[in-house]
Design brief:
The protein is α/β, with parallel strands linked by helices and about 500 residues long. About 45% of the residues lie in helices and about 15% in strands. The radius of gyration is 31 Å and the shape is globular.
């Protein structure tokens, strides 16, 4: 809009909206939205033009003071006759159309995760299997039997769609679901131990992402924390000494985002379960990420499975569906029937229940576990985590070659690196990988380059370290050609 110099050159809002170009915009985005954007843009533009006029007047006044010309005799460039309404409207259309396109584009969008953290909390964690995506789309098209029993024609129970699969895969008597594992822990504690004490080792009073702290959750659940032992060592006798008349449960919490090494002592779940049952109280075992299969089969770090936790004697287990499970965000509660039914009767359960789309995805993911030998192919997160170093290196070399051709002024290397499984899923365990590393040529240039990749039509997210931009290629396979096209056309 540099050709404009005076507010009087701007047509009225009505004149603009009646033009063919803006009628087309109104058909696309709605007249109210277009009108609001035109008014806002014109208001901003008028302010800029008034400032421009003021700067021009000051310049003329200063110049005339140093000459013999009469003040104001210098012609004001860009008079109101210099530009037609049609030309202004064309210019406005280009600007306003761009603003509307940006405003109406989805704020939540797909990105390419090359950060090196596979199950990245900020980037949506686990990618879904195709069967889950298809189920989500299909159930979204119209009505569904979410809480309707097709056999009897009466009201049904929404957890029925997944409970049988959870029980089959874990060995639980019953199961229910909520919107995430934090909710699962909160609901379980409030249902089983409200107004009573829960005994937990001091070394398991964790804080995870978003300031989720076990003591704070217990307070919100309206139960009292009875912490025992020390940070690095807790004995069975500590738990026993912590049990009193008002004790409602013992609780074991997975230290999902840290490890204590050295002079340590913790109690196995089976010993803890025996102690709990001797005192006729339940053991609640929060597995954190949770897994339904032995990860070591794919060369990944061993993690106790949900089935093993229940076999060890836990009465209730809680775990996530969107981390090591490889499904949608949800929390799964499984265990004894009487306790599960107690939890389901809690009024808070309704506030935490899953919607039809999440349940459809979860059911399909759980079905895949019926064939554990095929999980590395059917569940995307397992495929990514089990990828070989040679395969990753081959992908990295292809990406490096194209990137170097697109930015010849910078050095681009392929270097070995360590992938993190997830910030809330085995964060202390890493996997060998390869990354494409773009070395910055000046201070902060790597951050600027990272910004360019983030602003692509399909954002590519890496990580910056020591003025170099790192793209860990572990999670890059099916998207490789798409990223190559992006780099060639947009970098």
């Amino acid at each position: 809009m540099d050709s404009l110099s005076h507010p009087k050159q701007l047509p009225s809002v009505d004149r603009i909206l009646q033009s063919g170009l803006f009628i087309e915009l109104s058909e696309c985005y709605g007249r109210d939205a277009v009108t609001a954007e035109v008014r806002a843009y014109l208001d901003n533009l008028r302010v800029r033009l008034v400032e421009k006029q003021s700067e021009h007047s000051q310049h003329v006044s200063t110049k005339n003071r140093g000459s013999s010309k009469t003040p104001g005799s210098t012609k004001n460039p860009g008079s109101t006759k210099d530009i037609s309404d049609a030309t202004v409207i064309n210019l406005l259309h280009t600007e306003v159309a761009s603003l509307l396109e940006e405003k109406f584009s989805s704020s939540l969008k797909r990105v390419i995760n090359l950060t090196g953290t596979v199950l990245h909390t900020n980037l949506g964690r686990a990618p879904y299997p195709e069967t889950a995506i298809k189920a989500m789309v299909e159930v979204s098209r119209g009505a569904s039997n979410l809480e309707f029993d097709l056999a009897s024609g009466k009201r049904g129970r929404r957890d029925d769609h997944v409970e049988q699969w959870i029980c089959s895969l874990t060995g639980a008597q019953a199961a229910t679901t909520v919107n995430n594992n934090a909710a699962a822990v909160l609901l379980t504690l409030n249902s089983i131990a409200r107004k009573k004490n829960v005994v937990v080792s001091r070394g398991e009073l964790i804080e995870i992402g978003g300031s989720f702290r076990v003591p704070a959750i217990m307070k919100k659940a309206d139960c009292k924390l009875r912490e025992v032992g020390t940070t690095n060592r807790t004995h069975l006798k500590d738990y026993e000494d912590g049990i009193g008349k008002r004790t409602a449960a013992l609780m074991k919490v997975h230290t999902s985002n840290y490890e204590i090494n050295g002079f340590t002592k913790s109690i196995d779940a089976s010993e803890l379960a025996n102690l709990a049952h001797e005192h006729n109280i339940p053991l609640i075992d929060d597995l954190g990420s949770g897994t339904l299969t032995d990860l070591s089969v794919w060369g990944l770090p061993y993690e106790r499975t949900a089935r093993e936790a229940l076999a060890d004697g836990a009465d209730i287990i809680t775990f996530s569906g969107d981390k090591l499970l490889g499904g949608p965000q949800c929390g799964i509660i499984a265990g004894r029937t009487d306790l599960i039914r107690m939890i389901e009767k809690n009024p808070m359960k309704r506030a935490m229940r899953l919607d039809k789309v999440t349940l459809a995805a979860l059911e399909e993911v759980l079905k895949l576990y019926a064939k554990p030998g095929a999980l590395a192919e059917t569940i995307p997160s397992f495929k990514i985590l089990s990828r070989s170093r040679d395969e990753i290196k081959h992908i990295a070399e292809q990406l490096q070659r194209i990137t170097q051709e697109s930015i010849p002024q910078l050095k681009v290397h392929v270097l070995p690196c360590q992938s993190q499984i997830g910030s809330g899923a085995l964060p202390t365990k890493t996997l060998e990988s390869y990354a494409v590393v773009i070395v910055g040529n000046s201070e902060n240039s790597a951050n600027q380059l990272a910004g360019k990749f983030r602003s692509m039509s399909l954002p590519v997210i890496g990580r910056v370290s020591q003025n170099s931009l790192w793209f860990d290629c572990r999670a890059l396979a099916d998207d490789l050609e798409e990223v190559i096209v992006l780099i060639k056309s947009e970098l």
